[in-house]
Amino acid sequence: MEVFFSRFAGNIISVLCFTRVKILIAMILHTNYYTLVTIGVMLFFTFLHFIPVNLWVTALFSGVRVGLFELVFMRIRKVPPRVIVESLITATKAGLNVSTSEIETHYLAGGNVPSVIRALISADKANIKLTFKQATAIDLAGRDVFEAVQISVNPKVINTPSVAAVAADGIQLITKARVTVRANIQQLVGGAGEDTILARVGEGIVTSIGSATTHKQVLANPDQISRLVIERGLDAGTAFEILSIDIADVDVAENIGAKLQIDQANADLRVAEAKAEERRAMAVAVEQEMKAKSQEAKAQVILAEAEVPKAMASALQKGHVGVMDYYRMQNMKADTDMRAAISGEGANNQDTRQDIKS
């Protein structure tokens, strides 16, 4: 019974498959010829897009072992197979031992694969020790690894901006220098850049000129600046190695020392004038105070003289002074007033008395 049902099911499946095949053949026969060609071409290019046979053939004839399915998997991982294969062919032809997975990993990390390969080839030809790991680390750090290798082979000249410094005699000198540097491959990751080199060289120039006794000494021996700056080891912790520092130009500027002395003298003059004005004001104040005290003393004398008639009247009433004594005193007083009037002091005393009375 089971055999019967299995044979029956098989016959039914065969009939259904045969029916589908006939329907497909009928559709193909009734389809337009140009439509079939168009569909075939589209399928062909789609096949070439996902399965880059041409790249596989190129790699095969170049001596690079890359599997066809490996190229398909690159396409699936959204990695351009052409960039990987061409870089791998270039590295292989140059005698570098680099695997496909390493190049693909660096591309997925956001690196510039062609630049790394070119840098490795240049370093190998120039006998510079540079591994693939170091090159990828430099590239991922944001530096151009190929340019760094070129600077290692052909040193770079950096022109410093104008550096102003003052010698011990107060003369200002404006200096320009040319710094010849070579890239330090071992310090490219984490090392300081050109700005640090320029800042340190400028600091060294200022220190060298400032330690000179006179500006004539600097003008006579400009190489002394270069020697002192190089001895300071300014390339420590940077991505470059300083080969030489050449002084391009030295110009004499202002006499800063004399200018500072003039400014100091003007400041001292203003301080002295302020102190003199203060002393003059104090003297005027003391003079006015003494005049006030003099007027006060004269007023007290006049007030005391005003009490004399009262005392005289009291003495006459009590009989202590006679009439003749009184007339004799009046004559003496008249004589004194006359002498004062002749000398000019009487008018001042009279004005003072009137002021006191008022």
Q: DSSP helix count?
A: 15
Rg over C-alpha atoms, rounded to the nearest angstrom? 56 Å
Write the H/E string, N to C.
Answer: HHHHHHHHHEEEHHHEHHH
The coarse overall form would be rod-shaped
Beta strand % = 5-15%
Number of separate strands = 4
User: Structural class from helices and strands?
Assistant: alpha+beta
The percentage helix is: 55-70%
Largest sheet: 4 strands, antiparallel
Structure in a nutshell:
With about 350 residues, this protein is an alpha+beta fold.
Explained architecture:
- With 358 residues, the protein is of the alpha+beta class.
- Among the domains are: 31-153, no CATH class; 156-259, 2-Layer Sandwich (Tetrahydropterin Synthase, Chain A), CATH 3.30.479.
- Helix content is 69%, strand content 10%.
- The protein contains 15 helices and 4 strands.
- The chain has helices spanning 2-30, 33-50, 53-61, 68-76, 81-93, 100-108, 113-125, 132-140, 145-153, 194-210, 215-220, 223-231, 256-318, 323-343, 345-357, and strands at residues 156-159, 163-166, 171-183, 240-255.
- Strands 1, 2, 3 and 4 form a 4-stranded antiparallel sheet that branches.
- A hairpin with a 4-residue loop joins strand 2 (163-166) and strand 3.
- It is rod-shaped, with a radius of gyration of 56 Å.
Write the layout of secondary structure elements.
Blueprint: H1 2-30, H2 33-50, H3 53-61, H4 68-76, H5 81-93, H6 100-108, H7 113-125, H8 132-140, H9 145-153, E1 156-159, E2 163-166, E3 171-183, H10 194-210, H11 215-220, H12 223-231, E4 240-255, H13 256-318, H14 323-343, H15 345-357
Antiparallel strand pairs: 1-3, 2-3, 3-4
Helix pairs in contact: 5-6, 5-7, 7-8, 7-9, 10-12, 13-15
